[in-house]
Amino acid sequence: MPIRRTGVYRREELTRLLHPASIAVIGASTRPGSFGKQVLANMDHYTGRAYPVNARYSSIGARTCYPNVRDLPEVPDCAVITAPREAVEEIVLDCAKAGVGGAIIFASGYSETGKDDRVAQQERLAAIAQETGLRIVGPNCIGVVNALLDSRITFMDITPIPKPERNAVGIVSQSGALGMALAQGVVRGLSVSHVMTSGNSCDVDMADFVNYLATDPACGSIACVFEGMATPDRLVLAAENAWAADKPLVIFKMATGEQGAQAAMSHTGSLAGSNASYRAVFKRAGAIVVDEFEALMETAAFFAKAPAPKASGAAIVAASGGAAIMAADRAEQWGVLLPQPSGDVRAILESRIPEFGSSRNPCDVTAQILADPESLGVCANALLSDPQYGVLVSPLTYGYAPSAKRPQTYSALAEQHGKMACVVWQTEWQDGPGVVEANQCNRVALFRSMSTCFATLAAWQWRFNKRMADAPKVAATPAETMVRAKELLAAADGRTLTEREAKSVLALYGVPVVGERLATSIEGAVNAAAALGYPVVLKVESPDLPHKTEAGVIRLNLRDADEVRDGYTAVMANAAKVPSPVRIHGVLVQPMVPQGIEIVVGASNDPLFGPMIVVGLGGILVEVLNDTALSPAPVTPFEAENLLRQLKGVKLLEGYRGMQAVDMKQLARVISDVSRLAADHRDSVAEMDVNPVICTGDRITAVDALIVLV
């Protein structure tokens, strides 16, 4: 059986493997095109001690070649195995017996094939790792690069990676090719500390790599290319450790669609999982998720350089009116504030900008900077001095020598004010003058997309707000409530609870539910309506009719006894028309709740992450608009309110066009209570749907509910 780990390897457990003082190249060769030859060639740059191992040679070049890892003059920290799959297991056992710290396996043809015997081979490698303590990367991986040691443990002829700067990015990727591709950002001035590719991850995997880099001072941020894994909760744990260490983690998640998920299964044997759930759990752990691969390194490079924002506003300065408008559009799209400059700053801008320019924000200094080259720096300095702004954004529209000097000017000014600057590269001359210089600046981040720039600034402010927030923990549910809810769930007649049964469980958790009575006759319904007060609602109660609207067994807004009699007859007749036999308990009579904003609060048990809570606009709008927000359960009222504010329709809750505003804090408490129920009974509740929750001012009422048991 596959070995399931619940934790992540500590940094010291991986140091010999990932920061080795000595490396054995097992399968070293002189044969052109062989992995053994290329890896050994890469060792020419390594600052530690490298040993070729191959019984066929006594020496390779100037290096002595040894027949076996046990014959080396020292026990190597790391062994890179370039041999074919058939020979790998025996070599791994030799390494374990010799006390080698870790092994990197290139050979492919293991679990990614889906063949039982190949899956078993990979599982044996995993067992060796667990039994002996030999840490293994791979199989089916491209290797690992550590720029601090210039150790290029890979068969690729990779781009040389300079010694990392203080704002370096550590790269972690399941895909070896994509990981090495990201590292080529060094040719345009980006700084990289590590490239760690995991392949099939029989032992060391993405979570372990992230956890290793979380406390590595050599990198300022972590860029992660992620497909999926069978134990993603471990990656979440590593993300939480990175958050605790204040190390920004930026994730690009592949396999977000059905076809991508299938490709992930054939590529690395990983489990792609639900993209929405992944995003939700990563966000809770403090990771930044980007939607585009092309945005990953730029976003990570920004976070490696950027201090905490001093203010939430952004200042835009441009020599092109069109570029300034584009920047303002993207700022609005991503919710980045563009406050207008203060009076003193405005006066400085007006003194240097011609009347056909703009001294507002965005600031258009016009092409007059050609005649007054210093004006751009003066305006940038004035804007950065304004306490409303935490960042300066400057589109660079034309690549030529004079504009190449601007990033250094912005960087010096940003550092002087303790802030950040962003240059958006809008010319099609992608490697034109200024690209390398901008990426090498300590306080300038270069972006090739205006949208990516402002998405990153929004994430920057979000991360800061999350760090500053002192959100309380979820309150523990009283033991008697837990016991009573468990009893009600166990007493259900089948897997699906009736609405009345579901609401009785919700009420135990403090969720306000509409009152009701069960009638088993026409006159019983009339009497119930009189007691509850008109107008009323009628609903057939049956565990076999979870979706009552489609079955035609609901009648709304009945205002007198005659309407109740007619309604009762109609819903019972419709229930009798359902093709398959249904069990009918009677008809629920409920007071008609006044109209308001309808919200849905749902929960489901994700197969990878457990209970997830979802909120959105309710009623039929949940399916029409698909405007929802998701989070792992349980959530605090503070977190629940943040979910509500993520909705596109949040303006409706805030009192749109004269409508009464909803008490958001009270609604958030209801959402938190539902999430506690889902979390407390994750072993018995498969899914839950409270829809609609009708909200009018401070009146919050759940009028329908569905609970499906495991």
Give an account of the 3D structure:
The structure is a single chain. With 710 residues, the protein is an alpha/beta fold. Helix content is 38%, strand content 21%. The protein contains 25 helices and 29 strands. A seven-stranded mixed sheet has the order 9-8-11-10-12-13-14, sandwiched between helices. Strands 24, 25, 26, 27, 28 and 29 form a six-stranded antiparallel sheet that branches. Strand 5, helix 3 (85-98) and strand 6 form a beta-alpha-beta unit. Helix 3 (85-98) runs parallel beside helix 4 (116-132), helix 6 runs parallel beside helix 7 and helix 13 (374-385) runs parallel beside helix 14. The two termini are 25 Å apart.
- How many angstroms does the end-to-end distance come to? 25 Å
Helix content range? 25-40%
- What is the residue-mean pLDDT, rounded to a whole number? 92
Q: Can you summarize the main beta sheet?
A: 7 strands, mixed
Structural class: alpha/beta
The tally of beta strands, per DSSP, is: 29
Write down the Rg: 31 Å
Low-confidence stretches: 264-272
Helix tally equals 25
Strand content: 15-25%
Could you say which overall geometry the principal axes of the C-alpha atoms support?
A: flat
Major beta sheet, strand line-up:
9-8-11-10-12-13-14
Give structural attributes:
six-stranded antiparallel sheet; flat; single chain; alpha/beta; 710 residues; 21% strand; seven-stranded mixed sheet
Brief rundown of the structure:
The protein is α/β, with parallel strands linked by helices.
